[in-house]
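--- STAGE predict ---
source: upstream dedup step, 1 unique chain passed
mode: sequence only
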Amino acid sequence: MSGRPGPAWTPKLRRKAELLGAGLVAAAIVWWAIVYAQVMLNTGFPAERTLPCLLYTSDRCSLAMALCREWHFLGIRRYWAGLLWLGAAVSALAVLMGSRERRGRGGLSA
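--- STAGE serialize ---
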């Protein structure tokens, strides 16, 4: 037994997780913007009514996407909020990896 608690997270792995998480969140926001900009333009839904659709797909979000029958940039007609949550989970994992790394070096107390 080496006395080290748990797996040894390397800074390189943590950095990759940070970048992946941020990239997934950014991709989700861009994806939402592509879909809902066109939805707002074609259906008249105001931005404040479509912003919750970034976090979850409600009946209102599904209806707004279904009502929008016009052309969409890159042909993208649907948005999946799960990508945002996946990015948030990967980002949270990176933060936990960093705190475990600092604790292993004596930076944080247990």
